[in-house]
Automatic annotation (TrEMBL):
It holds the Pfam family DUF5981. Residues 10-101 form the Methylene-tetrahydrofolate reductase C-terminal-like domain. This is Methylenetetrahydrofolate reductase C-terminal domain-containing protein. It comes from the Bacteria. InterPro entries: DUF5981.
Length: 139
């Protein structure tokens, strides 16, 4: 189906518009084309003002506020809390490859089905010993 849509620009555009409309509303998706939602607690890292895809910058406050927009919680704090609640803390051991901006505006669903983002996240062997609140976490 992905190849079928890619071969038909009008249908591809319509499909991408549906993806954009649904994910923009739910996650603030900016159509980077390489979706990290499943390994980031379904918090879109592209909503970070610095568009960091491997965790927060050093400017996040101790109570989890964004350095750039202090009225907003850091998306990576949200991502960690959601992943932890879902028992997916191990996702944070994955190292996300740099985003390829040539994919901006393209469908991440189609890219996924085509296997183009299969190597986007690699196991970096990182241990995540603390909870988001700073307490020790049992494994
Ligand atoms: S496709 Fe990119 S911008 Fe859209 S939700 Fe996924 S990570 Fe965020």
């Amino acid at each position: 189906m992905a190849a079928f849509l890619e071969a038909r620009p009008a249908m591809y555009a319509a499909f991408s518009a549906v993806e954009k409309a649904s994910k923009e509303r739910l996650y603030g998706c900016q159509m980077c084309g390489q979706c990290e939602l499943p390994t980031a607690g379904y918090a879109c890292p592209m909503t970070c003002p610095k568009q960091l895809r491997n965790g927060p910058c050093g400017g996040v406050s101790s109570d989890g506020r964004c350095e750039v927009h202090p009225d907003v919680r850091c998306v990576w704090v949200l991502a960690y809390e959601r992943a932890e609640a879902a028992g997916r803390r191990g996702d944070f051991a994955l190292l996300q490859q740099p985003v390829d901006h040539r994919e901006q505006g393209r469908s991440s669903w189609i890219n996924y089905w085509q296997g183009r983002d299969a190597t986007m996240a690699v196991d970096a062997g990182v241990q995540i010993p603390l909870s988001a609140t700073g307490g020790a976490v049992s494994s």
